[in-house]
Write the structure tokens for this entry.
Amino acid sequence: MASLAHKVTRLTLSQLERVAPAASGRLAFELFCLTPSRKPKGSKAREAFDVGRERLRGAIVTKLALSKGMAAMHHWPQSSGDPSPARVLVVHGWGSRAEYLSALAVGLRQAGADVVLLDLPGHGASSGRRLDLRIATEAILAAERQFGAFDGVVGHSFGGAAVMMAAGGVFADIGTLKARRIALIGSPSSMADVFNGFAKSVGLGRTSIAAMRSRAFDLVGCSVDELDGVSVARRIDRPLLVVHAEDDKEVHVGHAQRYIGVSPHVRHLWANGHGHRRIVSAAEVISAVGDFLLREMPPHESVRRASS
């Protein structure tokens, strides 16, 4: 059942579209980029947040300036005494934050990694109330400049889409993520599909959708159709692990299936039964991601990184 806020949004855009479809499209794009409240929704979310906050209590928080606002990074260094541990970046999804990926961070740290968790703008300890793929990519590249090139990167949901844009250098003026290995968990592979789904959900007509696409191009710097993870995977041809649950109700399994056959370096893990959010805390998923990013990496494949 649609929420009251969703019904009001549909009504507002519908009325505006009748008199000013271009304005309706621009407003729809701003709503598309508006980030949700940072407060946990419900008792389960609050419990998960509290547990995550306690797990990350020993992390070092670094705040880095972006072109607009700042991004917070939670650096959880390896304590095993390894002088040069593998370093992994973890990027959360839409409406999430570092605390909700703490179980994954614990698993990677136990596997021997030096872990950095990023709060995307509009989320967690970062500033702002707006996020798009260009802004997310800028934050990911800021983390790389601060901590040096990562041995592996894992992104959940929207965070995975942003990681692919960064790895593909889609926004050439921002830079290209150098990590050799990438793991995607429950991530959309086509932002055009996500974009069109949102437009349909708020009842936009064709003229307003065209205006929404135009506004996206003006602010992001490329067309929505270019924001495609599969195209990036073909071009960069790096080891890629795609983890998805066929019962994911937020990001359809078709997004993961699009990667099948793209490259011999792409493999899949079907984590059925874990849905979209529980998947990042599933023991078998954490183990598989750790093996892929850390244990299966031959010495010559490890990237160089600057000291931080």
